[in-house]
Structures are given as structure tokens and as C-alpha cells.
UniProtKB/TrEMBL annotation:
Name the UniProt record assigns to this protein: UDP-glucose 4-epimerase
Family the UniProt entry places it in: Belongs to the NAD(P)-dependent epimerase/dehydratase family.
Lineage of the organism: Bacteria, Bacillati, Bacillota, Bacilli, Bacillales
Molecular functions (GO terms): L-threonine 3-dehydrogenase activity
Pfam families: Epimerase
Domain NAD-dependent epimerase/dehydratase, residue spans: 2-225
InterPro entries linked to this entry: Epimerase_deHydtase (IPR001509), NAD(P)-bd_dom_sf (IPR036291), NAD(P)_epim/dehydratase (IPR051225)
Biological process terms in GO annotation: L-threonine catabolic process
Length: 320
């Protein structure tokens, strides 16, 4: 029985649907700080939860009889950089509540890390699983600290903590939530909506990316893996592709030949992206628990363009 925090976020809104398909609607308790009418949430139990309230966290998990906690609630990079103290309190206070609940109730535990856990002096290409991690963004500091805290809870209390260093995640179901890699999500939406996009990330900025279905299956595959095989836990490098704005635009033009891309670089989000690797190495994830992906850039673009075209057509028919 699973408790998910941040269920209305970019990962959560897709993960809830998949977990309920596999484990049953009633087995998956969706929680978030705000209410929602989304069908993803309405298909099973939902509860308002402030993850920094450790008693409320414990009570929610206890009443749900949770044996697994998937903790997604956090502020992402750009929003965290504009409000670092709030980001620290939410990202680390929430994580501590989650880990204390997992310890008290002997739950298996997952929380995502990110390529943001690497800094400017980390090797940018084939970034190793074990390497220098000195990020200078608050989001990155909270991700490295989170990795260490999760390893501590495993080492000290035996909590079965596991994590993934996610690249930028692309999805069509939830709007972007204050990240830096969200430029790629915005580009797909605008390509279908208006045929043009002005990128706040500069041409030639390579970043790791992954389509959301691959991210969701990576979480489930990792959590179902035999813990004895894991030499690492918090957190595994995973990636599907290394792309820059022009490569995504070229892929989109296979469907929308006249798509226009121009640039208005946002110095804050560009400086965040400059800290991050160009292409990380996911060998340990493949070797230790069979990580694999189904979507490369063009296959992701095919699915994003068709799903967004359907969504916009449906929205227009509602208006007319
Ligand atoms: C962000 N989407 O942009 C998140 C992610 C690797 C980036 O952590 O903040």
C-alpha cells in the first residue's frame, strides 16, 4: 500500500495513474498541499498533506496502512532559486518528515534526486555515478543533501531508501512546475499551439532529458528490484537522451515543418542549466537493476505532438 506526496506535480500526476493500474485504486493514497479535480486524483483516495508537518505525515501513512512512501513534493530549480529559504524548508523539512515516517512504519522509500545534484566542476560528459557533487543552486544543494540523508537512514536505521537522479522530464499531462528543463515541455506545447517558441535556454545548451513514461517505469522497476543487487541507492544516474533546443526543434519539424524557434535567454535559468552535465552515464542503473528506456528523441516527439494536438483539439471543441 503506497502513499505518494506531490501527487499533483509533473511526476506525481502520471505516477498515480500507473501505480493504480498496477496495484489497484484503493492501494494508492495521493496526497498534495492543494486540492484538485483532476481525474488522476479522483480515481482513488486523496488527502491534503503538508509534508513539513511530520505528525500529519505519520498519521496519513498510518491510517492508509502504507508499506511504501514515494515522496515527490519539492520546489524545483528555478522556483527554489527565487526563494531559497522556502526551498530548503520544504525540500529538506518535507524529506525529514517522510524519512521519519518511513522509519517508524518500516516503509520502503523513494524520492527523486536530479542531474541538478552535480555542479559546474563535475565532469560534463559521461558523468560518472560516483563523482564530485558541489552544486551552487539551492535546488542542487537540497538534492545532494537529500541523497546523503536517504543513505544515512538506510545505513543507520535500515530503511530501504532508493532514488533516481532524474534528467529533465518531458510530459504532456501536467503543465511544467518551475523547473529549468521545462523549456523543452513549453516548446512542444507552443509548437502545437502557435507554431513558434522563444526559448529561455540558449542554443547549444546540452541537457539530459527523458520522456515521462520511461521515468515512471524506472521508479517502479527500481522499487521492485532485489535490494541485495543494489550497490548504490541514493541516487542512480538515469537518462534517455542528451539534447539542446535546436535538436528538439529539428525533431518537431518532422511533424510541423514551419516550426520557428528563437531565443530570449533568461540569465538565471541559463546559469542553472550551465551548472548541469551535458550527458550523464547510467551504467550502474543498467547493471544493478536493469534500467532501460523505450523513448528516444523522435519517438518522444511523435507521442508528444500527437497527444498535445488531441488535447488542444479537445479544448477547442469545449470552447466552441
Ligand atoms: C528542474 N525538471 O528543471 C527539474 C529537474 C533536471 C531538472 O530537476 O528543476
Amino acid at each position: 500500500r503506497i502513499l505518494v506526496t506531490g501527487a499533483l506535480g509533473q511526476i506525481g500526476s502520471d505516477l498515480i495513474v500507473k501505480l493504480r493500474q498496477i496495484y489497484g485504486d484503493e492501494a494508492v493514497l495521493a496526497t498534495d498541499i492543494r486540492q484538485s479535480q483532476s481525474e488522476a486524483v479522483q480515481s482513488g483516495p486523496f488527502r491534503l498533506l503538508d509534508v513539513t508537518d511530520s505528525k500529519a505525515f505519520y498519521d496519513a501513512a498510518k491510517e492508509h496502512r502504507a508499506d511504501t512512501i514515494i515522496h515527490l513534493a519539492a520546489l524545483l530549480s528555478a522556483r527554489a532559486e527565487s526563494n531559497p529559504a522556502l526551498a530548503w524548508n520544504l525540500n529538506m523539512g518535507g524529506l525529514l518528515s517522510a524519512l521519519e515516517t518511513a522509519r517508524a512504519l518500516s516503509c520502503q522509500f523513494f524520492t527523486p534526486s536530479s542531474i541538478a545534484a552535480f555542479g559546474a566542476d563535475t565532469p560534463k560528459r559521461a558523468t560518472p555515478q560516483d563523482t564530485l557533487q558541489r552544486p551552487l543552486t539551492m535546488y542542487g544543494v537540497s538534492k545532494v543533501s537529500g541523497e546523503l540523508l536517504c543513505d544515512y537512514y538506510h545505513h543507520k536505521y535500515g530503511v530501504d531508501t532508493r532514488g533516481l537522479r532524474f534528467p529533465g522530464l518531458i510530459s504532456h499531462s501536467a503543465p511544467p512546475g518551475g523547473g529549468t528543463t521545462d523549456y523543452a515541455v513549453d516548446m512542444y506545447w507552443e509548437a502545437v499551439r502557435s507554431g513558434s517558441y522563444t526559448s529561455y535556454i540558449a542554443k547549444g545548451t546540452y541537457l539530459d532529458m527523458m520522456y515521462m513514461p520511461d521515468a515512471i517505469s524506472a521508479i517502479i522497476t527500481l522499487m521492485e528490484a532485489d535490494g541485495c543487487r543494489l550497490k548504490h541507492r541514493n541516487a542512480f544516474n538515469v537518462t534517455a537522451m542528451s539534447v539542446e533546443p535546436e535538436s528538439i526543434a529539428a525533431s518537431i519539424r518532422r511533424h510541423i515543418p514551419d516550426f520557428k524557434l528563437d531565443y530570449q535567454v533568461d540569465p538565471v535559468r541559463q546559469s542553472i542549466a550551465n551548472e548541469w552535465p551535458d550527458a550523464i552515464d547510467a551504467t550502474c542503473a543498467r547493471e544493478e537493476w536493469g534500467f532501460d528506456v523505450q523513448y528516444d528523441l523522435n519517438r518522444m516527439t511523435d507521442d508528444m505532438v500527437s497527444k498535445l494536438t488531441e488535447k488542444l483539439r479537445a479544448d477547442q471543441s469545449k470552447i466552441s
